[in-house]
Design goal:
Distance between the termini: 36 Å
Shape: globular
Radius of gyration: 38 Å
Strand order of the largest sheet: 15-16-14-17-18-13-19
Structural class: alpha/beta
Strand content: 5-15%
Helix content: 40-55%
Largest sheet: 7 strands, parallel
Length: about 1500
């Protein structure tokens, strides 16, 4: 297997290169946004740029990147475009810029939307250019650019401007391009279409000739484009050299065809045109398919196109076709061919009279039709309306090969898609793992097309939806597997031994050489299948490794996935491995197969089962594992061995590799998706079309649902009646009671419910009444019945004053339907989620709610807030492995809940015992839940009923308040409650207390009745299953857990009515969809009533490691984001309470009307300034340090030493002023910088109690969903903006800070970026040098925005800051000398291990001596600067470069004896570099 060539990475230009570029000079003259005086528009500039910069460089990405980044499209091209100035260079320049925006994943159509007037003319020019002759004005390379532009247009149908132009190309009139006989056949199939067709013809006759000509051109555009492509394809020879321009054109064209076929709006009429053009037949017979190197990607794309052309869907109705319907279509085709053969072609009688199953295989069809002449084949095809009729006495112009392939490929039997899927191995093999077209490397640039499915807005059917996600999930996992294999195998250093075998010169923690491998079982296939039901093998390895690694291998559990690898190295012993060269060649990798662990074998060869019993101790180092192989893969390999004489793969394995458990769940998720495709996916009717992206996007909103609920109990949502009135602006509130004293929560609200099917016309007065009525809410305060006399009986209450948008979100969440809540940073998403859960729990006690989140952390935050509300603990259950992180002593896992139930049962039975004793009833009523039930029925209820009959008012006598207390039968039982129980003020009050006491008693027995099952079920597993299926009302899990355990949950009969998803914009599309289907349908319908999704699509999407899947396939698009793009109504929370208003302004431009909650202006912490710093946020410019800006030791592992040192210096400065270290977090946009900053902190201040460590040093992506008071942010890049250009990452970065944000970056780079302008224009409005107030300690009383009374110092660069902090630190040590002296006199036992304190130092007692010792122990910058300056003084401006570098390396490494008691010589300290190793 040939190893693929390593692709080259696109190197982004540096700022200096950008400034030196011809383009940049032109930009500064004509269109750069920061230039005030611009030259007037000149068309020659566009011509010159296109010829000199774009065409001359052969459309080099680097040049196009520069142009696009300089805002060429927004500020020059489109702004000045008009038909008068339109030219080839102008059109091509615009297309290049739009394509580059799509490649960079940034919004592309914004400037067109702002100025849409000339877009129709521009689009018509593009269509004309795409059909131009290739040897004419437009080259083939240029037309490939145009194809890509058109593809982007077809994939942007959600943009009105684009849709209005594209629709004319793909609507029914395009059937003008069909041959007449085929058109007649299609219209005959669907009579309704003939009506439309006649209407189209009538309208055409009314058009003026010019307009009609234009319309005809547009309708025939795709037909003509296909013919143009076929001519290019036929010009490619079989073996002679070919220009890659032709190959790339063909690849891009097939990509366009796939995208048109994969969307229902484009496919509906186009599929017939494509079929009529016989494009697939031309392609499969072309020379390009047979060219192994050049045609590899083309062939893969062709297979995808073939798949979609025959997709199981009715093109006109959009309904999915069942297997039976597909079979019927196939039989109809064959029988119509047989009828034609019988009637007109006597030579085909044998064919006509055979049964279908005998003739529908490819070989049979070739046997029957092969001997026929070309003319006869043409006549057969024309009879079926596939080709035009052949005139008499004329020979056909088509090749016989083409005619035969046309008839055979159309009528051969196809394997169904679900069968194909079931026969597909789930583990990737070496053929897929290292195929660059399917699994590209980390260096994918976005230039070429790939043989990958795309996730766009719409899908054909649920099967298509699941299949695309299945393939992408499989390939994303494959990419990670490839990285693991390359890492492990290269560490093992396989070399060729002298005798031709394999010798391993290294070792790997995650891989071991195989000593023996044998297949021990191949089970018989199931009926109707040709692959074995099960294949098992034994793998023996020798664990001569360290104990902890041995434990890891022995700890492999059932269902863990491993990989079996065959390597046959060709390199001699001792050859060095070069990571830059292709991996396969170097290690001689031949085969990779996946397997699943069943268990380890004991001495007697039996599998050691997982369980509570201790594992047997095995002697020696040899261990054997029993593994399951993939039956589909095994069948394919064996067939290949038998039929083609290939070697037996299973005799060759010599390495086994395991993976980390957290990253190794891909097989379970793939099996879940495959199982979903094999079952009838029952999605609720109200969701089906929205998930596929069709129909009315607002159809699932509660206001359009037929089962809308009129009256809802909002429980403790509102704090007062005024809060309620403020929560429904624009509505009038009618309270059922007039007494203000009784208008207290909780409230029941009756909403005016409008049925979706109202009469359209009303008289004016009636309409007015309707709107008035529609705005009136009827509010009914109600009293929660008394729950008992104990303090813990009082319900927990919500204390949050929700805003009116939060209330709208809560209201929508309580109603049936789909609720989408967009929650910007700090707007209380979790509080809203918890209140919705609580309200559903109280309004619909019989319903069960499933909570799904992306991370365990979010789930735990939710759970901690749920516990603070009035929800019974026994109804909560947490599935998965994150429950151990809950900050509570209570265990909400399955077994934790079982233990809770058992313990609670004992507690309640004790209460029954006490009650029995208080009533003086003999016997043992508290023995079991069952006996307690009888006790309640015969002893408790009878007493209560007798009591009620005596104290209730009868017709003649008025009730007596005293009797309520005296006759109460349970006084003795409630003796331990706060006394007196009865107040004696009124009959009603005391009666309510008595009923409350009885409710308390009744609840005990209700719970015991629920716990009866735990007495009958004996094992913990059965009890936990019962809890999950019957008892729990609120069940929480992560989306990954749902995907892994779907099969088990469905098998148990798990049921739920509502789903709430938090962090929905961070969950992969497929992992959002699976939780909808964790239950079996009831009578063919889903019982799901509500789906609440809470997220923020303006923050970061799901993490996709491979750039190709992220960019090309759009795999990072979450379902939440797709719904927003489609236009599903959302509730946008609009008041944040996290950050200062000034910090909020840095990101609130991204949201609709995001404002601040009142406390952001009122609370002192928000109005007080940040001590020691002039501004609450600042962008600090960091120039190159020692001539270096960013560096990149590994791909995408960016570092910037200057910024890292500056950030740490500011952190130390803040801590020295008194800021708590845990209130400061350091964030960066790259992993490389994160490691570098951590490294510097460890060296400078990590172990120093005077400074300490920041709360977190991590990446922006990892910190999403978290916050801190002060954020120091390093943007790292100095050459290109990089992935911060994704505005979502910018929003996350800007919104993590509550009180202070300090950003370190190369300002000249970031201020030019169009997407970041709204934030960076605010940042650059302030000085770009750090302004500090060293004499202002933390905390300060200065108000934010006030001029400080102290002196402000401006820090010009990083070395100055490093020197300043060093001096400040020294000054601080001198002033805290008393502490220093005391510490030095401590006995030696109190000094930590490893601290080197010399004896003469401990004897020093005088102040002068101690100070001089201190000066020796702290590494000094240089002698020149070492003069003890006060913190306020400035260092020498003209330091030599060596001094600055020494400063940076050591000045901030102050680890004083007084604080850390850790001494190091200046030489040692200076020798420690600050880079990561």
């Amino acid at each position: 297997m040939a190893a693929p060539a390593q692709p080259k990475k696109i190197v982004a230009p540096t700022v200096s290169q950008i400034n030196a570029e011809f383009v940049t000079q032109l930009a500064c003259k004509y269109w750069a946004p920061h230039i005030k005086k611009k030259s007037p528009f000149d068309i020659k500039v566009i011509e010159e740029i296109y010829e000199k910069e774009i065409v001359k460089s052969r459309f080099a990405i680097r040049k196009i990147m520069l142009l696009e980044f300089s805002q060429y499209l927004e500020n020059y091209l489109w702004m000045n475009y008009s038909p008068e100035v339109s030219s080839k260079a102008y059109l091509m320049s615009i297309c290049c810029m739009v394509n580059e925006k799509f490649r960079e994943n940034v919004p592309a159509w914004e400037s067109f939307k702002k100025k849409p007037d000339h877009f129709p003319f521009f689009f018509k020019c593009i269509l004309k250019a795409a059909l131009a002759e290739t040897d004419g004005e437009f080259s083939l390379h240029e037309q490939t650019v145009l194809l890509l532009f058109l593809d982007h247009c077809f994939n942007s149908l959600e943009v009105d401007l684009i849709r209005s132009q594209v629709q004319q190309l793909i609507s029914l009139p395009m059937w003008m391009g069909l041959q007449p006989a085929r058109l007649e056949l299609e219209l005959k199939k669907t009579p309704k279409l003939r009506k439309f067709w006649n209407l189209i013809k009538k309208n055409d006759e009314k058009m003026d000739p010019e307009a009609r000509k234009q319309a005809y051109q547009e309708r025939r555009f795709l037909s003509q484009l296909i013919q143009k492509f076929i001519s290019v394809l036929k010009s490619i020879p079989l073996s002679e050299p070919v220009t890659m321009d032709k190959v790339h054109y063909c690849e891009r064209f097939i990509e366009l065809m796939i995208d048109l076929e994969a969307l229902l709006p484009t496919r509906r009429w186009f599929n017939t045109i494509l079929d009529d053009s016989h494009l697939l037949v031309h392609c499969y017979l072309s020379s390009l398919v047979r060219r192994e190197e050049d045609g590899h990607l083309f062939s893969q794309l062709l297979d995808m196109l073939k798949f979609y052309t025959g997709f199981e869907i009715n093109d006109q109705t959009g309904n999915a076709l069942t297997e039976n319907e597909m079979t019927t279509i196939h039989y109809d085709r064959i029988t119509s061919l047989q009828r034609a053969a019988f009637a007109h072609f006597p030579e085909l009688y044998d064919f006509a009279l055979s049964n279908v199953a005998e003739v529908d295989a490819r070989d049979s069809l070739v046997k029957f039709f092969g001997p026929l002449s070309s003319n006869t084949l043409h006549q057969v095809a024309s009879y079926l309306c596939l080709l035009p009729t052949l005139p008499e006495n004329e020979d056909t112009t088509f090749d016989k090969e083409f005619l035969l392939e046309l008839l055979v490929s159309r009528h051969e039997r196809r394997i169904s898609q679900i069968q194909q899927l079931n026969q597909m191995p789930l583990y990737p093999t070496e053929k897929i793992i290292w195929d660059e077209n399917i699994v590209p490397t980390e260096y994918y640039s976005g230039e070429g097309c790939l043989a990958l499915p795309k996730l766009n807005l719409q899908f054909l059917t649920l099967h298509d939806y699941l299949l695309r996600n299945f393939n992408l999930f499989r390939l994303e996992s494959t990419y990670e597997i490839r990285q693991d294999i390359e890492d492990s195998v290269s560490r093992m250093k396989p070399w060729q031994s002298e005798y031709g075998g394999v010798v391993f010169g290294g070792w790997a923690r995650m891989a071991q050489p195989i000593v023996a491998f044998t297949v021990v079982e191949v089970a018989k296939p199931n009926i109707g299948e040709n692959w074995p039901t099960r294949v098992r093998a034994d793998v023996t390895i020798n664990l001569n490794v360290r104990d902890h690694i041995k434990d890891e291998w022995e700890g492999l559990r059932k269902h863990d996935v491993c990989f079996l690898i065959t390597v046959r190295p060709t390199k001699p012993y001792g050859t060095k491995f070069d990571r830059r060269r292709p991996f396969i060649e170097q290690v001689g990798l031949v085969y990779v197969r996946g397997c699943e662990i069943q268990g380890m074998l004991d001495d007697k060869g039996r599998v050691i089962e997982d369980g509570p019993e201790p594992r047997p101790n095995l002697r020696g180092e040899s261990r054997t594992f029993r593994v399951f192989l993939d039956p589909n893969q095994y069948q394919q390999d064996m067939t290949n061995t038998i039929q083609n004489g290939a070697e037996d793969v299973y005799d060759t394995f010599n390495v086994i590799m395991r993976r980390k458990p957290k990253e190794n769940n891909f097989k379970a998720v793939l099996e879940t998706i495959r199982n979903l495709m094999n079952t009838d996916c029952v999605v609720p009717d109200w969701l089906h079309d929205i998930i596929l992206g069709y129909g009315d996007p607002s159809s699932a909103h509660y206001s359009k649902m037929p089962n809308q609920i009129a009256t809802l109990d909002f429980n403790d949502t509102f704090l007062s009646i005024d809060h309620l009135k403020a929560s429904f602006p624009g509505h009038s509130v009618k309270v059922t009671v007039n007494d203000p004293a009784l208008q207290i929560p909780p409230f029941r609200i009756t909403f005016p419910v409008r049925s979706g099917k109202g009469k359209k016309r009303k008289d004016a007065a009636g309409e007015e009444d309707d709107t008035e009525e529609a705005k009136t809410l009827i509010v009914e305060p109600h009293v929660i019945p008394n729950r008992g006399p104990y303090p813990y009986n009082q319900p927990k209450r919500n204390t949050i004053q929700f805003t009116h948008t939060q209330i709208e979100a809560i209201r929508a969440g309580m109603q049936p339907g789909l609720t989408m809540v967009v929650g910007p940073p700090g707007t209380g998403k979790t509080d809203v989620a918890v209140q919705i859960i609580s309200n559903i729990y109280h309004n619909f006690p019989e319903q069960r709610t499933l909570i799904v989140t992306h991370s365990n952390q979010a789930l735990n935050q939710l759970f901690e807030k749920i516990m603070a509300l009035d929800i019974d603990e026994r109804h909560l259950l947490r599935l998965g492995h994150g429950e151990e992180e809950l900050e509570t002593e209570k265990d909400f896992s399955r077994y934790g809940r079982v233990n809770y139930v058992l313990a609670r049962r004992i507690e309640l039975l004790e209460e029954v015992k006490r009650l029995q004793k208080s009533l003086g009833v003999p016997g043992d009523a508290s023995y079991t839940c069952e006996t307690a039930g009888y006790f309640f029925l015969y002893q408790v209820m009878s007493r209560w009923e007798e009591y009620i009959s005596r104290v209730k008012a009868t017709g003649s006598t008025s009730p007596d308040a005293a009797e309520v207390a005296t006759l109460f039968p349970f006084h003795e039982y409630f003796a331990n409650a706060p006394q007196p129980i009865f107040k004696g003020r009124s009959y009603e009050e005391d009666m309510e207390i008595a009923e409350g006491c009885f409710r308390h008693i009744k609840k005990i027995f209700t719970q015991l009745e629920e716990f009866r099952a735990s007495e009958l079920l004996r094992s913990g597993l059965d009890r936990s299953k019962y809890l999950l299926v019957k008892e729990a009302k609120i069940i929480a899990m992560t989306c990954t857990h749902a995907a892994l355990k779907r099969h088990d949950l469905v098998k148990l009969g798990f049921k739920y009515d509502n789903i709430l998803m938090e962090e929905a914009a961070q969950i992969l599309e497929i992992e959002t969809f699976i939780p909808l289907l964790l239950q079996n349908p009831q009578d063919g319908f889903s019982r799901l009533k509500r789906w609440i999704m809470i997220g923020d699509h303006h923050q970061l999407p799901p993490v996709i490691k491979n750039m190709a899947f992220q960019k090309y396939s759009n795999m990072e698009q979450s379902l939440f984001t797709r719904f927003v793009r489609i236009g599903v109504p959302t509730v946008d929370l609009d008041a944040q309470g996290r950050a200062r208003a000034s910090l909020c302004n840095l990101y609130n431009w991204r949201y609709k009307n995001l404002g601040n909650l009142p406390h952001v202006q009122l609370l002192p912490e928000f109005s007080t300034a940040n001590a020691g710093l002039l501004y609450d946020f600042q962008l600090i410019n960091v120039e190159d340090f020692q001539g270096v800006g960013e560096s990149e030791p590994n791909p995408y592992f960016y570092q910037n030493l200057g910024e890292a040192e500056y950030v740490v210096a500011l952190f130390m400065y803040m801590c020295l002023l008194g800021y708590p270290a845990d209130k400061i977090s350091i964030l960066t946009t790259y992993n490389g910088q994160k490691h570098l900053i951590r490294d510097i902190i460890n060296r400078r201040c990590g172990n120093n109690p005077l400074i300490g460590r920041p709360n977190k040093v991590t990446t922006v992506d990892r910190f999403q969903g978290q916050q801190n008071d002060y954020i120091l942010l390093s943007l790292v890049r100095t050459r290109a903006v990089g992935h911060l250009r994704d505005v979502r990452r910018l929003v996350v970065a800007m919104s993590r800070a509550r009180l202070g944000l300090y950003i370190f970056a190369r300002v000249s780079l970031f201020q030019n970026c169009f997407e970041l302008t709204p934030a960076f224009s605010q940042l650059t409005a302030r000085p770009l040098h750090l302004h500090i107030i060293p004499t202002e300690p933390f905390p300060t009383s200065r108000k934010n925005g006030e001029r400080p009374p102290h002196e402000v110092q401006v820090i010009k660069n990083m070395p100055q800051m490093a020197n300043f902090v060093y001096n400040m630190y020294m000054h601080l040590i001198q002033t805290t000398h008393h502490y220093h002296q005391t510490f030095l006199q401590l006995p030696p036992a109190m000094v930590e291990e490893g601290e080197e304190i010399q004896s003469q130092e401990t004897e020093m007692e005088t102040e002068d001596e101690a100070t001089s010792a201190q000066a020796n122990l702290v590494p000094s910058p240089t002698d020149a600067i070492m003069t003890q300056e006060t913190p306020g003084s400035q260092p020498e401006a003209d330091c030599e470069m060596e001094e600055i570098s020494a400063l940076c390396d050591v000045a901030t490494a102050a680890k004083p004896v007084a604080a850390a008691a850790e001494a190091a010589s200046p030489q040692e300290a200076a020798s420690v570099p600050a880079e990561t190793k």
